[in-house]
Amino acid sequence: MSRGSTSGGVATADALRLEAVTRIYESSRTPVIALNEVSLALAPGTFTAIMGPSGSGKSTLLHCASGLDQPTRGKVYIGGAELPYGRESKVTKFRRGRIGFIFQQYNLMPTLTVRQNVLLPARLSGKAVDQERYTTVLERIGLADRLDHQPSELSGGEQQRVAIARALVTAPEIVFADEPTGALDTATAREILTLLDEAVYAFGQTVVMVTHDPVAAAQADLVLFLADGRIVGEMPTPTAAAVAERMTRLGDDVVERETMAEA
Ligand SMILES: Nc1ncnc2c1ncn2[C@@H]1O[C@H](COP(=O)(O)OP(=O)(O)OP(=O)(O)O)[C@@H](O)[C@H]1O
Protein backbone atom coordinates (compact mmCIF):
# COMPACT_ATOMS: atom_id res chain seq x y z
CA MET A 1 0.00 0.00 0.00
CA SER A 2 1.51 3.31 -1.04
CA ARG A 3 0.19 6.47 0.57
CA GLY A 4 3.38 8.54 0.51
CA SER A 5 4.64 11.31 -1.73
CA THR A 6 7.60 9.36 -3.09
CA SER A 7 7.76 6.40 -5.38
CA GLY A 8 10.84 4.15 -5.34
CA GLY A 9 12.72 6.91 -3.52
CA VAL A 10 12.04 9.39 -6.34
CA ALA A 11 10.06 12.49 -5.39
CA THR A 12 6.80 12.79 -7.34
CA ALA A 13 4.68 15.87 -7.98
CA ASP A 14 1.90 16.65 -5.57
CA ALA A 15 -1.40 15.20 -6.77
CA LEU A 16 -3.00 18.51 -5.78
CA ARG A 17 -1.43 21.83 -4.88
CA LEU A 18 -3.24 25.07 -4.12
CA GLU A 19 -1.25 28.28 -3.85
CA ALA A 20 -3.00 31.14 -2.05
CA VAL A 21 -6.36 30.36 -3.65
CA THR A 22 -8.96 33.05 -3.02
CA ARG A 23 -12.53 33.00 -4.32
CA ILE A 24 -14.69 36.06 -3.91
CA TYR A 25 -18.31 36.03 -5.03
CA GLU A 26 -19.09 39.51 -6.31
CA SER A 27 -22.63 38.72 -7.45
CA SER A 28 -24.38 40.13 -4.39
CA ARG A 29 -24.14 43.72 -3.07
CA THR A 30 -21.67 42.61 -0.40
CA PRO A 31 -18.83 40.53 -1.83
CA VAL A 32 -18.43 37.13 -0.10
CA ILE A 33 -14.91 35.83 0.49
CA ALA A 34 -15.67 32.11 0.24
CA LEU A 35 -11.99 31.07 0.15
CA ASN A 36 -9.27 33.18 1.66
CA GLU A 37 -5.66 32.48 0.58
CA VAL A 38 -5.91 28.71 0.89
CA SER A 39 -2.68 26.81 0.27
CA LEU A 40 -2.25 23.05 0.51
CA ALA A 41 -0.36 20.15 -1.03
CA LEU A 42 -1.57 16.54 -1.15
CA ALA A 43 0.64 13.59 -2.08
CA PRO A 44 -0.41 10.99 -4.67
CA GLY A 45 -2.23 7.96 -3.28
CA THR A 46 -3.65 9.78 -0.27
CA PHE A 47 -7.25 10.04 0.98
CA THR A 48 -8.14 13.47 2.37
CA ALA A 49 -11.43 14.59 3.91
CA ILE A 50 -12.48 18.24 4.08
CA MET A 51 -14.80 19.28 6.88
CA GLY A 52 -16.12 22.54 8.23
CA PRO A 53 -19.28 24.30 9.31
CA SER A 54 -21.94 25.14 6.74
CA GLY A 55 -20.78 28.05 4.58
CA SER A 56 -17.09 27.56 5.47
CA GLY A 57 -16.12 27.14 1.80
CA LYS A 58 -15.88 23.36 1.35
CA SER A 59 -17.79 23.17 -1.95
CA THR A 60 -16.04 26.27 -3.25
CA LEU A 61 -12.69 24.66 -2.44
CA LEU A 62 -13.64 21.46 -4.25
CA HIS A 63 -14.96 23.37 -7.26
CA CYS A 64 -11.86 25.60 -7.52
CA ALA A 65 -9.51 22.63 -7.06
CA SER A 66 -11.28 20.61 -9.76
CA GLY A 67 -11.64 23.36 -12.36
CA LEU A 68 -15.44 23.56 -12.02
CA ASP A 69 -14.96 27.11 -10.76
CA GLN A 70 -12.19 29.67 -11.28
CA PRO A 71 -10.43 31.23 -8.28
CA THR A 72 -10.40 35.02 -8.09
CA ARG A 73 -6.69 34.77 -7.24
CA GLY A 74 -4.15 32.00 -6.73
CA LYS A 75 -3.10 28.87 -8.58
CA VAL A 76 -4.16 25.24 -8.69
CA TYR A 77 -1.87 22.41 -9.84
CA ILE A 78 -2.96 18.84 -10.58
CA GLY A 79 -0.05 16.40 -10.80
CA GLY A 80 2.31 19.35 -11.21
CA ALA A 81 0.37 20.88 -14.14
CA GLU A 82 -1.35 24.20 -13.60
CA LEU A 83 -5.10 24.22 -14.21
CA PRO A 84 -5.58 26.28 -17.34
CA TYR A 85 -8.20 29.03 -17.34
CA GLY A 86 -9.42 31.25 -20.11
CA ARG A 87 -11.11 29.21 -22.78
CA GLU A 88 -13.71 26.87 -21.25
CA SER A 89 -12.76 24.13 -23.70
CA LYS A 90 -9.18 24.09 -22.34
CA VAL A 91 -10.32 23.56 -18.74
CA THR A 92 -12.85 20.95 -19.83
CA LYS A 93 -10.20 19.03 -21.77
CA PHE A 94 -7.81 19.22 -18.81
CA ARG A 95 -10.52 18.02 -16.41
CA ARG A 96 -11.55 15.09 -18.60
CA GLY A 97 -8.01 13.80 -18.81
CA ARG A 98 -6.89 14.26 -15.22
CA ILE A 99 -9.82 14.63 -12.83
CA GLY A 100 -12.68 12.39 -11.69
CA PHE A 101 -15.68 13.81 -9.81
CA ILE A 102 -18.25 12.04 -7.65
CA PHE A 103 -21.38 14.03 -6.78
CA GLN A 104 -23.84 13.55 -3.91
CA GLN A 105 -26.69 13.01 -6.41
CA TYR A 106 -24.63 10.66 -8.66
CA ASN A 107 -25.21 12.78 -11.85
CA LEU A 108 -25.51 9.79 -14.16
CA MET A 109 -26.94 10.17 -17.66
CA PRO A 110 -30.46 8.72 -17.30
CA THR A 111 -30.81 7.52 -20.89
CA LEU A 112 -27.48 5.68 -20.95
CA THR A 113 -26.81 2.20 -19.59
CA VAL A 114 -24.36 1.51 -16.77
CA ARG A 115 -21.71 0.49 -19.29
CA GLN A 116 -22.24 3.67 -21.36
CA ASN A 117 -22.15 5.87 -18.25
CA VAL A 118 -18.91 4.33 -17.02
CA LEU A 119 -17.28 4.70 -20.43
CA LEU A 120 -18.60 8.22 -21.11
CA PRO A 121 -15.60 10.25 -19.77
CA ALA A 122 -13.21 8.08 -21.78
CA ARG A 123 -15.37 8.52 -24.89
CA LEU A 124 -15.55 12.29 -24.44
CA SER A 125 -11.83 12.67 -23.81
CA GLY A 126 -10.93 10.39 -26.71
CA LYS A 127 -8.78 8.34 -24.30
CA ALA A 128 -8.48 4.63 -25.10
CA VAL A 129 -9.90 2.58 -22.23
CA ASP A 130 -7.46 0.27 -20.52
CA GLN A 131 -9.48 -2.98 -20.70
CA GLU A 132 -7.76 -4.50 -17.70
CA ARG A 133 -8.53 -1.46 -15.53
CA TYR A 134 -12.11 -1.37 -16.82
CA THR A 135 -12.66 -5.03 -15.87
CA THR A 136 -10.94 -4.67 -12.48
CA VAL A 137 -12.89 -1.52 -11.60
CA LEU A 138 -16.22 -3.15 -12.48
CA GLU A 139 -15.34 -6.30 -10.54
CA ARG A 140 -14.36 -4.30 -7.45
CA ILE A 141 -17.41 -2.07 -7.67
CA GLY A 142 -19.61 -5.15 -8.13
CA LEU A 143 -21.57 -4.08 -11.22
CA ALA A 144 -20.53 -6.69 -13.72
CA ASP A 145 -24.08 -8.13 -13.97
CA ARG A 146 -25.85 -4.73 -14.24
CA LEU A 147 -24.01 -3.28 -17.25
CA ASP A 148 -27.06 -3.09 -19.52
CA HIS A 149 -29.35 -1.50 -16.92
CA GLN A 150 -30.25 2.18 -16.83
CA PRO A 151 -29.70 4.30 -13.69
CA SER A 152 -33.45 4.36 -12.91
CA GLU A 153 -33.32 0.59 -12.49
CA LEU A 154 -30.67 0.85 -9.76
CA SER A 155 -30.79 1.79 -6.07
CA GLY A 156 -29.06 4.96 -4.82
CA GLY A 157 -26.07 2.98 -3.55
CA GLU A 158 -25.77 1.14 -6.88
CA GLN A 159 -25.95 4.44 -8.79
CA GLN A 160 -23.16 5.81 -6.62
CA ARG A 161 -21.12 2.69 -7.41
CA VAL A 162 -21.58 3.47 -11.12
CA ALA A 163 -20.44 7.04 -10.47
CA ILE A 164 -17.34 5.76 -8.67
CA ALA A 165 -16.56 3.37 -11.53
CA ARG A 166 -17.00 6.26 -13.98
CA ALA A 167 -14.58 8.38 -11.96
CA LEU A 168 -11.96 5.63 -11.68
CA VAL A 169 -11.97 4.02 -15.09
CA THR A 170 -9.88 6.66 -16.85
CA ALA A 171 -7.23 6.47 -14.08
CA PRO A 172 -7.39 10.20 -13.32
CA GLU A 173 -4.70 11.84 -11.23
CA ILE A 174 -7.23 12.82 -8.61
CA VAL A 175 -10.83 12.06 -7.70
CA PHE A 176 -12.95 14.70 -5.94
CA ALA A 177 -16.05 13.55 -4.07
CA ASP A 178 -18.65 16.07 -2.86
CA GLU A 179 -20.69 14.50 -0.02
CA PRO A 180 -20.65 11.11 -1.79
CA THR A 181 -22.61 9.41 1.00
CA GLY A 182 -24.93 12.32 1.80
CA ALA A 183 -27.97 10.76 0.08
CA LEU A 184 -27.45 7.20 1.34
CA ASP A 185 -28.47 5.20 4.41
CA THR A 186 -25.78 4.34 6.96
CA ALA A 187 -25.02 0.80 5.77
CA THR A 188 -24.84 1.79 2.08
CA ALA A 189 -22.72 4.82 2.99
CA ARG A 190 -20.20 2.49 4.69
CA GLU A 191 -20.00 0.35 1.53
CA ILE A 192 -19.35 3.43 -0.61
CA LEU A 193 -16.63 4.63 1.79
CA THR A 194 -15.00 1.21 1.69
CA LEU A 195 -14.94 1.41 -2.12
CA LEU A 196 -13.30 4.85 -2.02
CA ASP A 197 -10.73 3.57 0.46
CA GLU A 198 -10.06 0.55 -1.78
CA ALA A 199 -9.55 2.90 -4.72
CA VAL A 200 -6.77 4.52 -2.70
CA TYR A 201 -4.95 1.38 -1.62
CA ALA A 202 -5.74 -0.90 -4.58
CA PHE A 203 -5.29 1.63 -7.40
CA GLY A 204 -3.09 4.21 -5.65
CA GLN A 205 -5.87 6.72 -6.43
CA THR A 206 -5.73 10.15 -4.79
CA VAL A 207 -9.13 11.00 -3.29
CA VAL A 208 -10.34 14.31 -1.82
CA MET A 209 -13.79 14.17 -0.21
CA VAL A 210 -16.02 16.83 1.31
CA THR A 211 -18.23 15.42 4.05
CA HIS A 212 -20.32 16.45 7.05
CA ASP A 213 -20.05 12.97 8.57
CA PRO A 214 -17.24 12.37 11.14
CA VAL A 215 -17.44 8.60 10.50
CA ALA A 216 -16.86 9.19 6.78
CA ALA A 217 -14.02 11.61 7.51
CA ALA A 218 -12.39 9.03 9.78
CA GLN A 219 -11.95 6.77 6.74
CA ALA A 220 -9.44 9.27 5.31
CA ASP A 221 -5.71 9.55 6.05
CA LEU A 222 -6.01 13.23 6.81
CA VAL A 223 -8.85 15.62 7.67
CA LEU A 224 -8.54 19.31 6.80
CA PHE A 225 -10.83 21.67 8.72
CA LEU A 226 -12.15 24.81 7.07
CA ALA A 227 -13.74 27.82 8.76
CA ASP A 228 -14.56 31.17 7.18
CA GLY A 229 -12.75 30.22 3.97
CA ARG A 230 -9.46 29.28 5.64
CA ILE A 231 -7.83 26.01 6.64
CA VAL A 232 -7.85 26.23 10.42
CA GLY A 233 -6.60 22.79 11.34
CA GLU A 234 -5.69 19.31 10.20
CA MET A 235 -5.90 15.86 11.75
CA PRO A 236 -3.79 12.95 10.52
CA THR A 237 -5.05 9.41 11.26
CA PRO A 238 -8.45 10.70 12.40
CA THR A 239 -11.02 8.89 14.52
CA ALA A 240 -14.74 9.67 14.28
CA ALA A 241 -14.85 10.79 17.93
CA ALA A 242 -11.88 13.14 17.58
CA VAL A 243 -13.30 14.63 14.34
CA ALA A 244 -16.74 15.13 15.92
CA GLU A 245 -15.16 16.84 18.93
CA ARG A 246 -13.08 19.19 16.68
CA MET A 247 -16.18 20.03 14.62
CA THR A 248 -18.14 20.96 17.75
CA ARG A 249 -15.37 23.32 18.80
CA LEU A 250 -15.20 24.83 15.27
CA GLY A 251 -18.97 25.40 15.30
CA ASP A 252 -18.72 27.09 18.72
CA ASP A 253 -15.88 29.34 17.44
CA VAL A 254 -17.95 30.40 14.41
CA VAL A 255 -21.01 31.22 16.57
CA GLU A 256 -18.76 33.19 18.95
CA ARG A 257 -17.23 35.22 16.07
CA GLU A 258 -20.68 35.91 14.54
CA THR A 259 -22.04 37.04 17.94
CA MET A 260 -19.07 39.38 18.45
CA ALA A 261 -19.45 40.79 14.90
CA GLU A 262 -23.14 41.51 15.53
CA ALA A 263 -22.50 43.13 18.95
N1 LIG B 1 -22.72 31.79 -6.19
C1 LIG B 1 -22.53 32.38 -5.01
N2 LIG B 1 -22.75 33.71 -4.85
C2 LIG B 1 -22.54 34.32 -3.67
N3 LIG B 1 -22.10 33.68 -2.56
C3 LIG B 1 -21.87 32.35 -2.66
C4 LIG B 1 -22.08 31.62 -3.87
N4 LIG B 1 -21.77 30.33 -3.67
C5 LIG B 1 -21.39 30.23 -2.38
N5 LIG B 1 -21.45 31.44 -1.77
C6 LIG B 1 -21.08 31.76 -0.37
O1 LIG B 1 -19.74 31.35 -0.17
C7 LIG B 1 -19.59 30.81 1.13
C8 LIG B 1 -19.03 29.38 1.03
O2 LIG B 1 -20.00 28.57 0.39
P1 LIG B 1 -19.79 27.00 0.17
O3 LIG B 1 -20.98 26.49 -0.56
O4 LIG B 1 -18.46 26.77 -0.43
O5 LIG B 1 -19.77 26.46 1.69
P2 LIG B 1 -19.86 24.96 2.22
O6 LIG B 1 -18.88 24.86 3.33
O7 LIG B 1 -19.74 24.00 1.10
O8 LIG B 1 -21.34 24.95 2.81
P3 LIG B 1 -22.37 23.72 3.03
O9 LIG B 1 -21.73 22.81 4.02
O10 LIG B 1 -23.58 24.40 3.61
O11 LIG B 1 -22.62 23.11 1.70
C9 LIG B 1 -20.95 30.89 1.81
O12 LIG B 1 -20.99 32.07 2.58
C10 LIG B 1 -21.91 30.99 0.64
O13 LIG B 1 -23.08 31.68 0.98
From TrEMBL:
PROSITE patterns documented for this protein: ABC_TRANSPORTER_1 (PS00211), ABC_TRANSPORTER_2 (PS50893)
Signal peptide: none
Cited SMART domains: AAA
InterPro entries, sorted: AAA+_ATPase (IPR003593), ABC_transporter-like_ATP-bd (IPR003439), ABC_transporter-like_CS (IPR017871), ABC_transpr_LolD-like (IPR015854), MacB-like_ATP-bd (IPR017911), P-loop_NTPase (IPR027417)
ABC transporter domain boundaries: 16-253
GO molecular function, one term: ATP binding
Transmembrane segments: none
Record's keyword annotation contains Lipid biosynthesis: no
Keyword Nucleotide-binding: yes
Keywords: ATP-binding, Nucleotide-binding, Transport
Protein name: ABC transporter ATP-binding protein
